[in-house]
């Protein structure tokens, strides 16, 4: 770079993006800390919450909602299954498809995890007016849409 060329961190959009990335990373760390008594990590909670919301979805549908590959989901599900939090059942119409369900214990852990996550979010954002929270959310949805368009991808609903 020559001396007349500005550096990336001098640009407002770059600074904003770094702030968002840092906030996300720190929130994930705080959530991991707060979830530790449940012996689950944020990616586990993401799976459990999706099964809570969309009971009986397939592994493929779950991967789509989580914006990850099926192999990522396939590696994590056995851990949750061994802990007795989820179960896989065959699809009655298509024997090749496995449907995912929370167990009674899985539902309890999910509800507690959601309570922990909500309390953390409320604590962190309590000084931020609701209008600003909604504006931040709307801006991030626009970023998501732009990224999905850039990638030629219509993933979402997660």
Automatic annotation (TrEMBL):
Gene3D superfamilies given in the database record: Winged helix-like DNA-binding domain superfamily/Winged helix DNA-binding domain
SMART domains according to UniProt: HTH_MARR
MF (Gene Ontology): DNA binding; DNA-binding transcription factor activity
Transmembrane segments: none
Start and end residues of each HTH marR-type domain: 1-145
Keyword Lipid metabolism among record annotations: no
Protein name: Putative transcriptional regulator protein, MarR family
Alphabetic keyword roster: DNA-binding, Transcription, Transcription regulation
């Amino acid at each position: 770079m020559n001396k007349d060329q500005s550096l990336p961190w001098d640009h407002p959009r770059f600074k904003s993006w770094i702030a968002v990335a840092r906030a996300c990373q720190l929130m994930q760390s705080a959530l991991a800390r707060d979830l530790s008594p449940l012996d689950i990590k944020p990616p586990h909670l993401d799976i459990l919450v999706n099964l809570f919301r969309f009971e009986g979805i397939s592994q493929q549908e779950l991967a789509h909602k989580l914006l990850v590959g099926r192999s990522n989901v396939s590696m994590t599900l056995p851990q949750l299954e061994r802990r007795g939090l989820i179960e896989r059942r065959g699809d009655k119409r298509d024997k090749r498809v496995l449907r995912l369900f929370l167990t009674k214990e899985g539902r309890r852990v999910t509800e507690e995890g959601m309570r922990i996550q909500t309390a953390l979010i409320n604590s962190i954002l309590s000084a931020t007016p609701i209008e600003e929270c909604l504006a931040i959310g709307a801006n991030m949805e626009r970023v998501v849409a732009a990224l999905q368009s850039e990638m030629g991808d219509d993933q979402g609903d997660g």
